[in-house]
Write a structure and sequence with these properties.
heterotrimer; B: mainly alpha; three-stranded antiparallel sheet; 21 helices; 3% strand; globular; C: alpha+beta; five-stranded mixed sheet; four-stranded mixed sheet; 14% strand; elongated
C-alpha cells in the first residue's frame, strides 16, 4: 500500500464506522406480556423461533415431550429444565435487543449439543449491519485490489 | 533414474530452469526464509522433534480410537468425539490451516505406520521394505476423490460427528486405508489423493503464508542427484512445484539438499493466488465449491433452529435422510456449481473473453479460496467455541469410567456469544474483501484492462456471504 | 541404525502403553457392580437382575449411556438418585428384609420409561419370606376392568367448603375409612340423597356435602405427597391437570385404533384416563383406583406400580386424584 493513499483507508474506516454505529429508529411498540409454550423433543424446540418486541415481558413454558430437556438463552442469564409431565416456566423482560440463540442444557441424546432455537428481540439490526459490512468489504477488495 | 519426464508439469518447470528467476521481470513478493534462523534450522534438521511429536500424535490417535469404541456412548461426553470434532477440528481450522496451510500434514500420525512398512524404517529408509510401489492411476489424480470423500462425510456428518462408535470406525478405516495404500502404491497416495483433510488443507495452503521453495533453480539444474526428490515421501520434485498445495511440509527435502538450496519461507498471505494462471485446475474449483456448499449445509444443520433438518440429517436410511442427502448433493453438485458457472459465463460474455469457459471456471477457483477459508473459520468458531467446555469433561474422564484426572472442578464459562458474533462478521468481511481483491487481480491478468471488475463473480461472493451471515447471525 | 531402533522402540512402547489401559481395566474390573442405564428401547438396565443378602451392602456404580435417568428401589420409600450421561453415581444399598425388590428409573426417558425396571433378589438364610397380603381390591372381589359410568353427575365442581357451610351432620357410618376405601362418591351421594334428613338440599348441595365428607378422609399432607408422586410419575401421560392429555397421550392414543400393535410400545395402548371426567371418577372407589394403580392397565400402556409404590404412597396418590373432582379450597 502506498502511503499517499492513506485517505482511502480513512474513507473505508469512516464508512465501516457508519455501518456499524448508524442509529436505527426503533419501533415504538408498547411492551406487552407474551407467553410461549415450547414443546421440546429430541432434538428440536417447537416453536424454535420466538419473536418479541424490546421491553416485552416474556414467559416461556417449557414442556418436555420425550426425555428431560433444558433451555438456556445466550445473552440472557436464564436456565431451566423440564421433565416430561412437569412443565417448567421462566419469565423475563426482553431488555436486550438482538437475536439470541437458546439451547438445551440436559444431555438428551447424540444431537443434544445442536438442539437450538432463537429468540428475536426487535429487528435483527446486526444482520443488516453485517451484510452492509460485507458489501463494504467487497467494495474495498475491488478498490484496493488494483495492481 | 528418475521418472521426472512422466510429470506433466515438468515441461513448464524446465522452462523455469532455462530462464532463471533472477532474469524475470515479475516482482517477487518479500519472503523470510525461516530455515536461516539457526535454532529453527537445528530443530528442523534433527529428525527427533518432529518424530516425537508424530509419535505422541500417533499414541493419542490410537487412544482416541480406543475411547471412541470403549468409552461413553454419549457423544457430548465421549473423548473421541470432543477431541476430534471440537478440539482438533478447531485447532486445524483456526490454527494449522490459516497459519501454515498443510502444516498439520507434517505431524499427522495416520501415515506413520504405513510409511514405516513402505520405507523399511521410521527415521531412515531400510533395506527390508514392504509394498508393491504401484503408480497412482493418472485418471484418479487431482482432488476429485477427495471432494467425493468430503461429500460422503457430509452426507453422514450428523451421525459421524455425534456417535462415538461411528467416529471410531471412521478413524480406524482411515488408518487402515492409509496403511493399505502405503503397501500398494508408492509415496503418500492416501495423503495426496484420498484424505479429505489433505485435500482442503492443500487447496487453502495456496492462500497461507508458509511454503517450501527452491532458492535458486539454477543450482538444482546443475545438480544431478536430485536428492530432494529421492527424499520426498510425497514424490514431489521441489523445483517443479508451482504452488504449495501438494507439499506436506515434512521438511525431508530441506534435510536432504546437499547445497542448502531449499527455503522454508514465510510469505505474504495469498502469494499463490491471482498469479498468471498456469496452475489452475477444474478439480480445485469443484473442491472449493464443495467446501463452500458444505459450510452452508453444516451451519444450517448444526447451528440452525430447524429440528426437522437435524432429524433428517441424523436418521440414516430414513426417507427424510434420503431427501436430506439428495438435497446436500444437489446443492454441492448442481446448485452452487451451476450458479458459479452461470456467473463466469455471464462474465465471459460481457468481457468478450476468448478463453474456453472450462479454463475460466478453473481460473476463478482462486477467488473462492479466501472466502471458503474464512467462511470455514467463521463456522468453526460458532460451532466449536461454545462447546469447548466439553473438552475439560472428557480430559477429566476419557473413558467415562468415573475417573477424576483433573479433579471434579467444573467452573462456569463466560458467555462469549456476542464476541463470536462479532468475530464471524469480521472473518466473513475479510474473506469477501480478500476474494474480491483476488478476483480483481485475476481479471486484470486476463488482460481486459478496460473492464477490470468481474461483477457476476462478485455478486456470487456477496450472495454466498449474505446467505452464510443469515445462517450464523440471523 | 541405533537411532532407528530407538525410534521403533518408542513407537511400539507408546502404542503398547495406550492399548494396555483398556486391557488392564477389563482384566482388573472395578469394585462394585457397574450398571448402565439406557432407554428401554435400547435395552434398559444392564445388568437387569441382581442378588443380595440381608444385611450385606450392595455397592452399585450407576452411569447412563444416553439421557438423564434416575434410580430407586420400589417399596423402600427412599429418595431417588440421579444418573447422568457419563457421570458415575455411587450408591450402596443395605436390605433389612428378604424379598424380591424392583428397581426402576425415576425420570421419564421415553414413552417406555416405566419398562426400565430390574429386580434385586434379597435372600436371608435365617428367615423365610412372608407371604404378601393381597391388595384391597382383591379382598373386596372388585372387577377393576368392568366399565363404570356415573348416571348422575354434579352440575359444577363440588366444593368441600360449601359442604361444610351447610352445617349438617352426616351419619357415622359414612365417615370412616373403611367406607371411604370401598365406596364410590356416587355411592355416598345416592345414600345421602335417599336420607330423609337431606331432602331439603338440592342435588348440587348434596354433592358439596359429599365433597366435604370425602375429602375429610384425606389430609393436606397426604394430598401434597400425592401431588409430588403424580407430577413425577403420572403427569407425563395423564396430564398435569389430570385431563388425560399429557405429553405422551397422543402417542398412546395412536395405539388404540391401529390394527398393528403400537410400534413404540409393542401393545394396544389407549388414551390415558381423564381424572377430570366425573362420569368415570365419581363411580370409582379408592380400592378400585388402587387396583388400577398397582396392577396396571394390562396392555393399555398403564404401568403396574405395585412393585414400586408403598401402600401409603398409593393412598396419597388417590387422595390427590380426588382434588380433580372436588374443590378442596379453603374459604372462611
Amino acid at each position: 500500500m502506498k502511503l499517499n493513499h492513506w485517505w482511502h483507508w480513512v474513507i473505508l474506516a469512516g464508512l465501516a464506522f457508519t455501518v456499524i454505529f448508524m442509529p436505527v429508529p426503533a419501533g415504538a411498540a408498547t411492551p406487552i406480556e407474551r407467553t410461549f409454550r415450547i414443546d421440546a423433543r429430541r432434538f428440536e424446540y417447537d416453536p424454535a423461533i420466538l419473536k418479541v418486541n424490546p421491553g416485552d415481558r416474556v414467559t416461556i413454558e417449557l414442556a418436555a415431550t420425550d426425555v428431560v430437556h433444558g433451555l438456556t438463552i445466550e445473552g440472557y442469564d436464564l436456565q431451566t429444565t423440564a421433565d416430561p409431565g412437569m412443565t417448567a416456566s421462566i419469565s423475563f423482560t426482553a431488555d436486550r435487543s438482538g437475536t439470541f440463540r437458546f439451547h438445551c442444557t440436559v444431555t438428551c441424546g447424540n444431537m443434544h449439543p445442536f438442539m437450538t432455537g432463537k429468540l428475536e428481540v426487535g429487528q435483527n439490526t446486526v444482520l443488516w449491519r453485517a451484510i452492509g459490512l460485507v458489501g463494504l468489504a467487497l467494495f474495498a477488495g475491488v478498490w484496493k485490489g488494483r495492481k | 533414474m528418475t521418472r521426472l519426464q512422466e510429470f506433466p508439469w515438468m515441461e513448464d518447470s524446465a522452462l523455469d530452469v532455462a530462464v532463471p528467476q533472477s532474469l524475470k521481470t515479475r516482482r517477487v513478493p518479500s519472503r523470510i526464509n525461516l530455515y536461516r534462523i539457526p535454532w529453527l534450522k537445528a530443530m528442523l534438521e534433527n529428525r527427533w522433534p518432529q518424530f516425537l511429536i508424530r509419535t505422541v500424535m500417533l499414541v493419542g490417535f490410537v487412544f482416541t480410537i480406543a475411547t471412541a469404541l470403549l468409552g461413553s456412548r454419549v457423544g457430548s461426553h465421549n473423548f473421541a468425539i470432543i477431541m476430534v470434532w471440537i478440539a482438533w477440528w478447531t485447532t486445524l481450522k483456526l490454527g494449522f490451516i490459516p497459519l501454515g496451510g498443510r502444516s498439520w500434514c507434517s505431524i499427522c500420525p495416520i501415515p506413520l505406520p504405513g510409511e514405516w512398512l513402505q520405507q523399511g524404517g521410521i527415521m531412515e529408509k531400510g533395506k527390508r521394505r514392504l509394498g508393491l510401489y504401484l503408480r497412482w492411476p493418472k485418471a484418479l489424480r487431482g482432488s476429485w476423490l477427495q471432494s467425493g470423500g468430503f461429500l460422503l462425510i457430509g452426507m453422514f456428518s450428523a451421525v459421524t460427528l455425534t456417535d462415538p462408535h461411528v467416529t471410531g470406525w471412521v478413524l480406524l478405516a482411515l488408518f487402515a486405508l492409509a496403511i493399505g495404500m502405503s503397501l500398494v502404491f508408492e509415496h503418500r497416495a492416501f495423503c495426496s489423493y484420498i484424505c479429505p483433510i489433505g485435500g482442503f488443507s492443500g487447496m487453502y495452503s495456496k492462500a497461507t503464508p508458509v511454503e517450501v521453495k527452491v532458492i535458486d533453480k539454477e543450482v538444482c539444474a546443475r545438480h544431478g542427484d536430485k536428492s530432494c526428490y529421492q527424499a520426498c515421501p510425497w514424490g514431489i520434485y521441489p523445483v517443479a512445484m508451482k504452488d504449495s498445495s501438494a507439499c506436506g511440509l515434512c521438511m525431508e527435502c530441506l534435510r536432504a539438499c546437499p547445497k542448502d538450496n531449499l527455503a522454508l519461507n514465510l510469505r505474504p498471505y495469498g502469494t499463490d493466488l491471482a498469479r498468471p494462471i498456469t496452475s489452475s485446475r477444474l478439480d480445485e474449483t469443484f473442491l472449493a465449491l464443495i467446501m463452500l456448499g458444505s459450510a452452508l449445509v453444516f451451519s444450517a444443520v448444526f447451528l440452525g433452529p430447524w429440528g426437522w433438518l437435524k432429524m433428517s440429517a441424523f436418521n440414516l436410511g430414513s426417507q427424510a435422510w434420503l431427501v436430506y442427502a439428495a438435497g446436500f448433493l444437489a446443492l454441492n453438485l448442481l446448485l452452487l456449481p451451476g450458479i458459479f458457472t452461470l456467473s463466469v459465463a455471464v462474465w465471459k460474455k460481457i468481457s468478450h473473453n476468448s478463453l474456453p469457459l472450462r479454463r475460466m471456471i478453473a481460473n476463478e477457483a482462486q477467488g473462492l479460496l479466501p472466502l471458503g477459508l474464512l467462511a470455514w473459520m467463521a463456522f468453526t468458531i460458532s460451532f466449536a467455541i461454545p462447546k469447548l467446555s466439553y473438552v475439560v469433561g472428557v480430559l477429566n474422564d476419557p473413558f467415562g469410567w468415573g475417573w477424576q484426572l483433573l479433579g471434579a472442578g467444573t467452573g462456569a464459562y463466560p458467555d462469549v456469544s456476542r464476541l463470536i458474533l462479532a468475530l464471524e462478521i469480521v472473518l466473513l468481511s475479510v474473506g469477501v474483501a480478500w476474494s474480491a481483491r483476488v478476483s480483481r487481480r485475476l481479471s486484470q491478468s486476463e488482460g481486459k484492462v478496460n473492464l477490470p471488475t468481474n461483477y457476476p463473480v462478485l455478486v456470487f461472493y456477496f450472495l454466498y456471504a449474505g446467505a452464510f451471515l443469515w445462517l450464523l447471525v440471523g | 541404525m541405533i537411532k532407528e531402533w530407538i525410534a521403533r522402540g518408542i513407537v511400539v512402547l507408546g502404542l503398547a502403553a495406550v492399548i494396555s489401559i483398556p486391557v488392564l481395566k477389563t482384566v482388573h474390573g472395578s469394585n462394585g457392580i457397574v450398571m448402565h442405564a439406557r432407554m428401554a428401547e435400547n435395552g434398559g438396565w444392564a445388568p437387569e437382575n441382581l442378588t443380595a443378602q440381608v444385611g450385606e451392602p450392595l455397592h452399585l456404580r450407576l452411569t447412563s449411556d444416553d439421557v438423564s435417568h434416575g434410580f430407586a428401589v420400589g417399596q423402600l420409600n427412599q429418595p431417588a438418585v440421579e444418573i447422568n450421561p457419563s457421570e458415575v453415581t455411587d450408591i450402596t444399598l443395605v436390605f433389612t428384609k428378604p424379598g424380591k425388590y424392583t428397581f426402576y428409573c425415576t425420570r421419564w426417558c421415553s414413552l417406555n420409561h416405566w419398562r426400565m425396571r430390574g429386580t434385586i433378589e434379597v435372600t436371608d438364610p435365617q428367615t423365610k419370606t412372608e407371604p404378601a397380603k393381597p391388595p384391597l381390591y382383591v379382598m373386596l372381589g372388585l372387577d377393576i376392568d368392568e366399565a363404570h359410568k356415573a348416571a348422575v353427575i354434579p352440575a359444577g365442581i363440588p366444593a368441600a367448603w360449601r359442604g361444610a357451610l351447610l352445617r349438617r351432620s352426616v351419619p357415622e357410618v359414612y365417615q370412616n375409612r373403611d367406607y371411604y376405601f370401598s365406596h364410590t362418591p356416587l355411592d355416598l351421594w345416592t345414600a345421602l340423597r335417599s336420607e330423609q334428613a337431606y331432602k331439603d338440599l338440592s342435588a348440587q348441595e348434596v354433592w358439596d356435602l359429599v365433597a366435604w365428607v370425602w375429602l375429610a378422609n384425606t389430609t393436606p399432607e397426604q394430598v401434597q405427597a400425592g401431588k409430588e408422586i403424580y407430577a413425577a410419575n403420572c403427569a407425563a401421560c395423564h396430564g398435569e391437570q389430570g385431563a388425560g392429555n399429557g405429553v405422551y397421550a397422543d402417542q398412546l392414543a395412536a395405539g388404540t385404533n391401529s390394527t398393528d400393535t403400537n410400534q413404540s410400545t409393542g401393545e394396544h395402548t389407549q388414551r390415558p384416563a381423564n381424572f377430570t371426567d366425573p362420569v368415570t371418577m365419581l363411580s370409582a372407589s379408592p380400592a378400585h383406583l388402587q387396583g388400577k394403580i398397582i396392577r396396571g392397565g394390562m396392555g393399555t400402556g398403564m404401568p403396574s406400580w405395585g412393585p414400586i409404590f408403598t401402600e401409603d404412597q398409593t393412598w396419597q396418590l388417590i387422595a390427590y386424584l380426588w382434588t380433580f373432582q372436588f374443590s378442596s379450597e379453603v374459604r372462611p
